[in-house]
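Example record for the data management plan.
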Amino acid sequence: MIDFDNPNTFPKELKNWGTEFEKMILRRVNMDNIEEWWQIEHQLQDIRIGESKLVNDFVKENMDTEIAVCHCARILDENEYWKHGLVTAGGKNNAGERRLRKLLVDIGLDEDKIEEVFLHVYYLWNCNKQSKTKSVHFFIDKSQVYKNDQLNYFAVNLGGEILRWSLKAMDRDLYKEEPYKRLWIMGTPCVITFKVKLDDIYETDRNSLIAEIVKYNIMKDIFGFDYEFKFTGMTVGDVPPENILSIEEIRDYIHMQEKYPDYKGFYDELKS
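Corresponding structural encoding:
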């Protein structure tokens, strides 16, 4: 299983790029005034490593290869994930709607307000059904949850991004008001690690994911720089419970959010 937290798990064949490939990289990457790894990575983007024969061949021949990936969420009951896995929203009249309705009822929201929320939820689901209702979004380097606030923000509220956007569409400051605030206070911010086969990753993400390993190897072996994995992708469908590898609380989460003016003093009740 490929684990981006452990480069020793990277397939050795993704280093076998040959002399001509290496010459091309050295020719295309300008090392003048290079001080940081990302300055090289920006140039590698122009080369389109994901479209190379090395990556294409690996993906075609290794669709059953498993990769450990991560997903951020605020959760009420860890056992639900061990029992049911990560279940996609599914859209109107499906699992996602049932989950969100129960959540809004449980915090004491009136029926008319629930229907108002769902006007926005339906709209967002319909904007991109594959991404919003049929996939689980993931990133590949667990350490990024402590470096990238865009990733850890997915664990800021129960109900996820769609519910957060829906409430924001109604009123930007609604999250500060009761009972909506309960969605931000209840539960535990977590990073869920699960395994997924290349074949179960969205088609347009497969090559880009494997290209991350090739870029890591290029950065280390050719240029002598470290590399940070910032790739994000999505699955095709649910993640079954047997594929869940770990569920961990995100450390110092309140401190992460209190850096921003919107959350100054917001979590005081959790500190008492």
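Summary line stored alongside the record: The chain has a mean pLDDT of 96.
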